[in-house]
User: Fold these one by one.
Assistant:
Number 1:
Amino acid sequence: MKKAWKIVLITALCLLILGEIVLGVGLLSGGSPDRVWETASEYYDFQQISDFLHSDAVQGPLGQIGLQIP
């Protein structure tokens, strides 16, 4: 099981590094983070997601196990 988690960790780190490289190249070549935000905002209502995460439906069960979303 230890070996499986090590593989998952290495894979996640590789994907994170690759994502940072892609983001850096995109910004260096004239890309705009605002365009990405606008595109994501078309499909997802971030205010509604935030309201849900801070609602009692989520905070109640998390509070019972000692966790809290800031």
Number 2:
Amino acid sequence: MKMIEGGLIAVVVLLAAVGTGTAAPNTTGPTTGGSKVVAAPESAPNANVRGRQATGVIVAVDREANTVRIKSRTGERTFALSPRVQVRLGTLKATLAELQPGKRVSVRYRDMEGKALVTTVKVL
């Protein structure tokens, strides 16, 4: 019985010394001087840009310039439409043709390089 207890104690001490191997691997990169060096992924240069939302009535749509001007409670603002903009009519997919002056919309956008770039337009 003492042999079994001694063996169990040895296993516990060994696991405590080396760990169990269940910790998540370090995927953030190398460390220097105790602090981790984290590089932003190249595929997402503006990953830290926060999404925003605005609601209002469409004043004008410029299909050549790929912009939409919306009047909200805070005033009018022109938004650039992303090349991959998603237009929704309720829960259904729609086209840019649905964006007409006078329609109430909600837009999701990101401020990128001084422009408000719309990623989603929902016709309300």
Number 3:
Amino acid sequence: MYIIIAILAFGLLIAIHEFGHFVAAKLCRVQVNEFSIGMGPAIFKKQAGETLYSLRWLPIGGYCAMEGEDGDEEGKVNPRSFAVKPAWQKMIILVAGAAMNFLVGFVIVAVIYSSAAGFVTNQVVETVEGFKYAENGIEPGDVIYSIDGHRVFYSSDFYTYMGRAGATVDMVVIRDGEKVELKDYGLKPEDPDGYRYGVSFGTVEATLWQKLRYSGYTSWNFVRIVWMGLSDLVRGVIGIDEMSGVVGIVGAINDIGNEVEEQTQSVGAAIQEVMYLVAFIAVNLAVMNLLPIPALDGGRLLFVVINAFSALIFKKTIDPKYEGYVHAAGMVVLLGFMAYVMVSDILKFI
């Protein structure tokens, strides 16, 4: 059941992403030639007006093919071509897919939090006596504002950034309405009495405003977690072999669903945990698609910005033909990388 949920979720997230591009393109009066969910051979096709709608076999992508996306044919200018639209409209169209994914992630979290009774805040209500850092450090009533420059919105942020910190951190707390800096602050996670890092945090009632607020915090934290993962990858903390693609993620969702169901004896609790992971994946897709990599939305955005500055300063832009070559090469590399990760995932299962 959880494998089916995962596959359907991937298809839905792709559809919503491409639908964001589709709606933005239509609003900007750009001609959409094809709206496709999935890649590879078509299962279903239907022409409706100027747009061909298709469903394809491989649920690993999709596309919204716009007229002139890689430049108009020589000697042919379509007033509804993507290529002739102003830079700000191009940017709206390109960002719309990621924006829809982020919105879906937020909505899923908000639905999960709709039944919450309260949330754990970032305000310290108690410190354990005898901890090395308790003196001249965190005090009851302090609101943890930031750790090593990272904003702390609720208790989960505190544990996330403390878990990534070294022997000491630079912490900022709000005490009596003023910010207090705790430089080179030593913290140890071990605590025999169960108070991790020697502090406990307060709670707040889950009113409608707080539910929306903490849904926003969680969605933003998903973005930060993705950036942490990318940072670790670039720094070599984690290797490419530790990454997972569609196959690995579907397997992880299945494992989590079955594990939670077994522990709680509740299908509802398992589905809620699975949907929380789907929300994270939705935000992950939003962030990854905006990376300045050729063939991704972020790569196309980069060219829009470069062309805008080039037109302003040099009165000329990059030939769309060459931009198309760059994106085509980027697509080949991305597909090759996806294939590598997929094979790696399958070998892990074997």
